[in-house]
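Hey, I'm writing a tutorial for new members on how sequence and structure tokens pair up, and I'd like a real worked example in the thread rather than a made-up one. If someone can provide the structure for the chain below, I'll link this post from the tutorial.
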Amino acid sequence: MIRRAAIHKEVGETPLMALERFRAAIPGLAKMPLTYAGRLDPMASGALLILVGDECKRRTAYDGLDKEYVFEILFGIESDTGDILGLAQSAARHVDISPENLERVLQSLIGTLALPYPAYSSKTVDGAPLFVHARQGTLDDVVRPQAVTRVYAFTLESLSKRSTRDLRQDIEHRLGLLRIDETSENPYKDFRRDSVLNSWDSLLRTEGEYAVARIRATVSSGTYIRSLAPRIAQQLGTAGLAYSIERTRIGRYVQLPPGWGFWVRTYACF
């Protein structure tokens, strides 16, 4: 009997969509209770831990597991969500980012960190999630709380330049992957996609280049990469956002390989 499985959530899916895709792929799960431990943002991909049956009762134990991410920081641009699914604007604080300076900043951030919850997150403040305050224009009327987290390790995997043309094409492609439930009554179901696309198109229309760093990080539960990426950029004297996020590990659980449906049906009893 399958008790849990770390499946791969695709870019553009919500965690619930990935959970239901898992249910449909595995015979015998149609009527079984399922839940997931640890959310992933719509534009993030990677390991999503699905709990099955009685294991759902132990969700809080799994929620607290440490995580490993591979993420990219796009420097010189910021958004109101901390990633590409936000209204983008130039930071107007361009600096020459070297591997040496970036390594220095990364090492300085290892340890305990207090990071603000993203404006577009489900953290409840004064009776409403922060994203509701953000959409209603009342975010300045509340105190945005901070999450105390811990960074265990950073590895700088690459630092490169990306042209505005390549960035624009890639962002348009990934935002096009957003899966929207047209039957939902949620007024925010479209994620402001048209407005977000327009902001990126306007910002990246001029030919130029931006620095992009690829970083691997091991962090405690509750660490928002959409808050960590801007903090790293801030320490370098500029602004930035999480250009891409992939979760590669949850505790000891790594995501299943391609074709995971067959793998789970054949081998998974863990």
